[in-house]
Amino acid sequence: MATITKTNRGTWSFLSYIRRHEKKTCTLTCARNNKLSQQSRFYSSSGKKNVNSRQYCLNLIQKYDHENFLCTLLYPKSAREAAIAIKAFNVEIAQVQDVVTDKQRGAMRMVFWRDTIEKVYQGSPPQTPIALELAKVISEHKLTKQWFMRSIDARANRLEIDSFKSVNDLEDYCENSVSSVMYLMLESLGIKDLHADHAASHIGRAHGLVTYLRAIPFNTSRGRVNLPTDLLIKYGVSQEDVYRGKKPELVNDIVYDIASVAIQHLRTARSLKKDVPKSAVPTFLNTVICEKYLTDIQQAGFNVFDTKLQRKNGLLPIQLLLQRMKRTY
To answer: For residue 45, is pLDDT > 90?
Structure first.
């Protein structure tokens, strides 16, 4: 039997944790009413918690953002609780667009989250799992309110538009929605560094663009074609063409242009490595996710509808762990 040293003990623990959670059935359901019902049961009539708020947040991330769930498990213990709360918050507001039936309901959910953040910073958080977790970590890590609000505003504005006018608009959306969360993650580590912020901005944009590309098949299946208008015009492709599967080579060209922008952001972020504190690496583990998808889509000829791109990466836990051990991104 192999001896578990100080180094590989952490590796063994992480992988064992992954195996346990892979076998576990999530207690959360996809239906919004069931989800809200679970939150309403968070407190019993006696006022005692029925479930642990931290575990609720962790389950939420695991079910709806499994890749970031894995990244979170590799966060330093001192900041892991903050990472879980921040990412659970992000999952909640990111889901709004997919679960609401109309824009008005979506806008109401965003108003709820603005009010929630306001109340958290006022010291009177709503009695819901995510709000309570945020209240703890915001107080402990002195997280900046602006980044929460900017992320909410970006998601709220996204509900009001059917498609982006340009790639630049799409990049701005990624900066406001994804990079803002990364700034919070850096703050949870106690990092206040201009180079780290600069890298986070580019990585957030790259990850946002990758997430956008990965969502195209799902959105198209629901009749939502939101490719940037400037690229549709550039290549002479209509939304109907995309929806009907017409002009596939030209659609691939559009995907190529967007993927190229993501690759450039990733390269720019990596060019800053020598100036970025090593302690920021856990925040940037999502570069592994970005690089894997961008490599795969290139091999697929930038056909975003290739079913191979939808396959789960079974090696991701190992890849993330190796990146974490190398202390690089």
So the answer is: no
